[in-house]
Amino acid sequence: MDKNKHKKLEGGKQCRKCPGENAESSPLISIITAVYNGSSTIEETIKSVSAQNYKNYEYIIIDGGSTDGTLDILKKHNGEIDYWVSEPDKGVYDAFNKGIDLARGEWLYFLGADDRLFDDSVLGKFFTKPIDSEFLYGNVFWGEDGEIVPGKFFPTKFYHQNICQQAIFYHKKLFERLGKFDLKYRLVADWVFNMKAFGLKSTRPVYFDTIIAVYSLDGMSTHVPDKDFSASRERLFREAFGIPFYLKFKISGAMGRLFRRFLKFLTLARRKGTDLFGPTCGM
Predict the structure, then answer these.
(1) pLDDT tens for residues 210-224?
(2) 153 and 106, same structural domain?
(3) Which whole-number Å values give the CA distances from 78 to 31, 61, 85, in the listed order?
């Protein structure tokens, strides 16, 4: 079936989840999942959300026009999903952007269709206390091998590495200030957004040393580089953190590489018994 000919379908509770009894003290969280032909995994994803002890959330699923039975699963769990829609899109970040437009929550969380929340207490760990931040993040379980990937980050790390998106809760204000995910970066638009967010003083990122989600290793960005991002990395990093920080980072990196080369040369010279400074004069 041609994905572009797929008829738009909708479902869910439609009214969306109404704020709970503790709405004044606990914020509404919008959980957004993008899926396309994910019938083998999406049900576990849905169950991990509906099992949460923290109930002041809405769950939105954006389907790209699945033809493999995914829609049957969405209909089966209609009572656990606040809103779902199935129609052609331009990829996962386009789907996430649709979810951002639909979200009513103060905080947004993006959960892959082959990922799941770690346990039933995840949301409660983050949103039962006052929050002075617009970017909360933690750790993920990387694949099924049980490896925990820590998410403690500093601006310099963004040059080589991104925070796993399943480890982040974004305040909606960030998308109002920075815009939505840039579809130019088809595989790592969240990396670009995260750099911009960390570059804002008002973001005040807060790290929690706790596991948020089990992250699948089957995602496309895990295996395929984003050529547009690679070509723009220097500029994006410079724009996010400023020219003075960028120059300091580059100079520090160059000095570090030079020092490591010198140490390597010194080690090789010692192994060969070479006197780097030539023969010394005796008295």
Answers:
(1) 999 998 866 545 556
(2) yes
(3) 15, 11, 11
